[in-house]
Please model this.
Amino acid sequence: MLERLIPFSRPGLFRKPRSWHQNVKPGPPGKEPHGASPVSGGLKEAVEKAQEALLAGQQKEGFWCAELRADTTLESDTIMALFYLDLADPRKVQKLARHILHEQLPDGGWSVFRHGPADLSATVKAYWALKFAGHSPEEPALRKARARIEDLGGIHRVNTYLKFYMALFGLYDWEGVPTIPPEIMLFPNWFYFNLYSLSAWTRAIVVPLTIVWAQRPQMQTPPQARLDELFEDECRFIPLKEVMAPVPFFSWKNFFLWWDVGLKRLEGHGPHFLRTWSLRLAEEWLLEHLEDSDGLGAIFPGILNTLLAMKALGYPATDPRFQRQFEELEALWVDRGDSIEVQPCFSPVWDTAISVVSLAESGLRRDHPALVRSAEWLLECEVRRKGDWTVRDPHQHPGGWAFEFHNEWYPDIDDTAMVLLALRQIQLEEGWSHAREKACLRGLHWLLSMQCRSGGWAAFDRDNTQWIFTKIPFADHNAMIDPPTADITGRVLEILGHIGYDRSYPCVQRAVEFLKREQERDGSWFGRWGVNYLYGTWQVLRGLAAIGEPMDQLHTQKAIRWLKSVQHEDGGWGETCATYENPSQKGRGPSTPSQTAWATMGLLAAGWVRDPAVDRGIAYLLSAQSQDGTWEEEEFTGTGFPGVFYLEYTLYRNYFPLLALGLYQRLMGEPSLAPPAGLRAPSRSGVAPESVPAEEYLIAREN
Model:
């Protein structure tokens, strides 16, 4: 059995520590906290209350799945789709519209993250959705929105997918919509450009749209949903080049714009059999990827676009496949009584794994029934079929975990690493323990096989890095490819370190070199999947610490210094989604429980346990905790597509602070992890203490 899991072509890749099988089980009990700390008084009580609050949210099956929130583009797109599908229930449309109205900014626009500035595409979508719902353009809310749309540049500057949806209703000319031809299905996988050179989520978004592009159904626009007042004249499109930032004449962006013009001129004039063939391939790909999945990609845009494609292909609303996709769409709706909010997807595997780690690391018994149920549920969720990742990794057997309930085509590296971190925390009976060992072996082999040539790890694919495709006109969702990132690489190193890997293993050496190259000049790391540099820096430090990387090196000391330099006066840390557009804002923003926990854990991982910065971070978390053991957090701290789409994980505010408090409680009994005395710069006018320059630290260590 085990021999089949080791491809003979790459045996060295799967060399493991001798005791790896022992390291996927719980270790010896941690030390009881002792020693004095300025904030130790209510620490034990705070941890216990947080544990109780988190345990109360566990489902009877053993998983956690909190609401995942995003911006109003989801409700706007849902209203559009309901009218396109001729399934608009007036009561539900009004509830969706009510949520959209509630989120309008004082200046009349809508943002893509809470407390953020108005975004043009989100504002036009909201305006259009409200008109679909019957709101008059003369209402004060819509008049303000219309003025804000004009201030932001006007309707012609909205993104690709909104133009696509408007074209379906005849409100925008297809000439102004980036071409998404189904013929992309014809390119073989070995060709430089092919479907699998795009990111996994882009495939789920784009393949259904290629069908719609080819069919171009003419939908009747409800009279109340016309957008004539948003156009300055009779022109219903402007050339794509005029709405994009200027670039040199010889550039990849212009190259693809010329191709876009050429493809539009060829539309309807090429060999008919090519269009028929490519449409059949697109439909077959779509239907195949609906198997063993809660909708295409198990994400909102994939599900919605699948419904649009099925409608374009003539699927009746009574077709079981159509009905199932519509049920998946409705499953994402959260009915709040007077309004409906739409989730982008479900996050049970992610929430469960982090909850388990937080509870176990904070001192919950390793054989606690709640943890045992979670482990059994996670083991049952293991992905055992080959998915899209096999195109670039054809010889590896399946293993790993996806983010959602059922998404067999798309296990991801981040979730797999987090589940492995969780499973090793739980004491299981012999049968389940044996199942865990086999699942962990499969997951470990899959993770190792997915390492990119650069040494890092990406989210869903290996070496999905053809950056020139980010210049394609329909790439304005800012996530066309899936390159390796520092945050995911740090998490993979974390699990590898706990299993027993260190710098003597080539896979670890390459990963560390990747992280060194990715580090920002100020010492921080970019956070692709969490906001932002706080997330990336914390995760990298935890990964480096797990593999035994010395924390007195220049790159680690720069990271520590940066973390301490951006601590706020209240003791917390915070950073907003605006940093993706403006990196100069990194480390700035209201203090939040989740980001304070990340930064505190980054310092703890680096060994700075008995340090004023850590004490102040812990004090912030203790003071911000509610009586019921939870925390409040308004900011979005999760990332979907940087600069375009952000997420509010509603459990981040609870399980990450619990994890930070639990780690601090345990590490207080290990004074050897504290930095040498006298190596902190004095506090200046209330600003958090900073570490001294890394060069001075290294000299002090030498002496």
